[in-house]
Amino acid sequence: MSKSLAFVATAISTRFRVPLPQIQYRFYCSSPSHPSSNKLFVGGLSWSVDEKSLKDAFSSFGDVTEVRIVYDKDSGRSRGFGFVIFSNEDDAKCAKEAMDGKALLGRPLRINIALEKARGVPVVVPRLSDIGHLNRR
Q1: Residue 104 burial (CB count, 10 A)
Q2: Where do the structural domains in the chain lie, given as residue ranges?
Q3: Which terminus has fewer CB within 10 Å in the chain: N or C?
């Protein structure tokens, strides 16, 4: 894939007589608009939802291999979100499309493809003061 992109860049450079910079470029395929996974993040859960009721709500879309609700360490109360893991990625996508925004025990669900947690890797979030064009008046 990168050879064909390099060929296109060279052809454009030759056609318009623009020299190519002397920098090595790497071409990466862009990731899909949404990450692919069989794990769903389910937010907006009612405090009365338990693992069994969550599994029952999603099992009609395919084989649910694991359901986990996140609980507060101190109070033991649900934090209002959890994860549903399917054995098949297509089943997870179907469940996401069908259940996102639907009510479960009186509360609308917010469903996304779950991102893998990166342990030990710092997350850098730019401050507004670091963005130069926003500071100019």
Answers
A1: 19
A2: 37-111
A3: C
SS (H, E, C) the chain: CHHHHHHHHHHHHHHCCCCCCCCCCCCCCCCCCCCCCCEEEEECCCCCCCHHHHHHHHHHHCCEEEEEEEECCCCCCEEEEEEEEECCHHHHHHHHHHHCCCEECCEECEEEECCCCCCCCCCCCCCHHHCHHHHCC
Read off the tokens for 125: 């979030």
CA atoms within 13 A of residue 51's CA, in its CB half-sphere: 10
Residues counted in the chain:
137
pTM: 0.61
The number of beta carbons lying within 10 Å of the beta carbon of residue 126 is: 7
Q: Model confidence over 4-30: pLDDT tens digits?
A: 555 555 665 566 665 555 544 443 433
- Class (C level, CATH) for 37-111: alpha beta
Q: Given this model, what pLDDT does residue 116 score?
A: 73
Cβ proximity of 102 and 23 under 8 Å:
no
